[in-house]
Amino acid sequence: xxxxxxxxxxxxxxxxxxxxxxxxxxxxxxxxxxxxxxxxxxxxxxxxxxxxxxxxxxxxxxxxxxxxxxxxxxxxxxxxxxxxxxxxxxxxxxxxxxxxxxxxxxxxxxxxxxxxxxxxxxxxxxxxxxxxxxxxxxxxxxxxxxxxxxxxxxxxxxxxxxxxxxxxxxxxxxxxxxxxxxxxxxxxxxxxxx
Amino acid sequence: xxxxxxxxxxxxxxxxxxxxxxxxxxxxxxxxxxxxxxxxxxxxxxxxxxxxxxxxxxxxxxxxxxxxxxxxxxxxxxxxxxxxxxxxxxxxxxxxxxxxxxxxxxxxxxxxxxxxxxxxxxxxxxxxxxxxxxxxxxxxxxxxxxxxxxxxxxxxxxxxxxxxxxxxxxxxxxxxxxxxxxxxxxxxxxxxxx
Lengths: 194, 194
Prior knowledge:
The structure is a homodimer.
Chain A: E1 5-6, E2 22-28, E3 31-37, E4 40-44, E5 49-53, H1 59-67, E6 69-75, H2 80-86, H3 96-100, E7 105-106, E8 113-114, E9 119-128, H4 131-137, E10 139-149, E11 154-155, E12 158-159, E13 171-175, E14 178-187
Antiparallel strand pairs in A: 1-10, 2-3, 2-6, 4-5, 5-10, 6-9, 7-8, 9-10, 11-12, 13-14
């Protein structure tokens, strides 16, 4: 594992621009949790804001509204099994960090637990309360207050997918425990009119 | 191009569960448009609902609010250049369908223009007006009223990424015209506790 490096906030949206499945972490009053979420997206570059769907049944939802924040951690290809595992049990019944041997550190602004082991990047977010969309669509909004990435795959505001960092290639949940892995980075070419 | 087949509505969320970049199409009063959007996600399985970020400056936003609907079309790997091209110009200045030679058909419920050529699937959506989130976060919600997919890559409610359908593998925008392509489909394995 390389040491994570800070990501400038105006580049934070790029960390999830391509739709990776993420691990949502949160902590409050001595409790902490990890859940998997395929449903997240940026909504604004500056200030960097994101949306994520957190079901009403989840323990994480209680921690977010109690603690006022959360983090999105972006698992790499080697963390597929972990991602599916934490998405298939409830933090009400166990401390998933301890149960699955996941090490976390405290992010710098809100102290949210973030995972670097097996992950490509993380975004620490302040909860932006929106009672109606949380109720009607389970959609939570957050403002990114800190972000960091493994410089082997994200540096100077850009992703660099290559054969050398295949363990950090992002994973994208198709449903029912099946994932596709992102790779084969390509630049678009200018297109002539028909 | 294979003939698209209908996708059952309770499977529609799976079409964008893995975060592909999409083409948002809309039409109203004889005008139509295509824009690219990296920022979309499902928000509910049943009824199938999605969220997509549509900037206030876009022509598509006028068409959605005027026409009451939109569609998300999911471009395959061969459509990277088209996706970037339609995301880099405005429909106020041209009919992008004509300009880039894109053929569309009318989706069955609302008549939204959907693209099958070069695409893996589409979802036709009824606009769910949410003035606050549209204003504060540029976030639009929609309910999927029809969906279809190319059975070479999506059938019976499941994606099937393989070497044989590489042209339909979904594309995921990293930013600034750089994309990663999804591939290498893998099933998660059960994980023992630490």
